[in-house]
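Lecture 7 notes. Example A: sequence first, then its structure tokens.
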Amino acid sequence: VVYNTVDVILEDESITGEAMSDIYVKAWIAGIDDKQETDVHYRSLDGTGMFNWRMVFPFEYLPAEGQMVVRKKEHFWSLDETEQHLPLQLVVQIWDNDLFSADDYLGSIEMNLCSMVKGAKEGKKCTLDMLPGPGKSVKTVSLFEMKKMRGFWPCYDEKPDGTRECTGKVEMELELMAHHEEGFEDKTVVK
């Protein structure tokens, strides 16, 4: 569930000349063709967006390997599907909606759900220092052990020189459930 964004950079200018952004959040599991996005929080003047938007991403998980299974045809004329085992990477991006031009990408975070940083309890405690980087290690947890996690995670844009700039923070709740808990088949779901 994407609840809020805070401290999002302001990319546009309002009619009155104030800096603003029309914020929305896009998310998906890397390797699965199912991108989902929130509605748009229009005319944010302080980088805050409110959503309370639920996203559900079904996937098949192999606990022994710590990876998900993706089956798809390599070509449209292929008869059989190819099976791949991929790491479980949740990609979350912040975008600025534009009416008359392409939307502006503001920043993102990629989280391996088997080894991810815990979210900060408050937006002001959420910084890029939470994230691993070159020569820097941070404590990570597995969502598969925790089952449920809520907090703020920083999104960033990488500059050409390799440095990261924090472009906003996303407050989310991540929860794992088996399909039978939702009344589906026995597979794992991230929501």
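Example B, a different protein, same format:
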Amino acid sequence: DYPIFRFADILLTKAECILRGAQATNGDTPMSLFNQVRRCSSAPELTANPTMDELLDERSREFYFEGLRRTDLIRFNQFGGTQTTYNWSYKGGNINGVTFDKTRNLFPLPASEIQANRSLIQIDGYNETEE
């Protein structure tokens, strides 16, 4: 096994880092990095730096069905917790979508792992028996 990273992921991650306050290199701006990705799909280019919401939306389009959405939503504080503003049908097990405890941003430790290593402590919010 070996990891594979798409160039679009690298560009959008660098744009996100700059938007979050990292030092830009090589004259890159969030807008220029964002537009490199959009050019590949012939999408209209931005004329100003993207917002964090625009960046999250672009990641959802670019990495559709690539298994990154959940971690992106967690990183952008849009998955669980009472502070989230993003909602979808059946979020939290409700047809209209409801917020849920931020504890659910993490998966519980499997009971078999806790039984194999008694030094492990289950994540707050989960029962010792949940898997």
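Note on Example B: The chain has a mean pLDDT of 89. The chain is about 35% helix and 0% strand.
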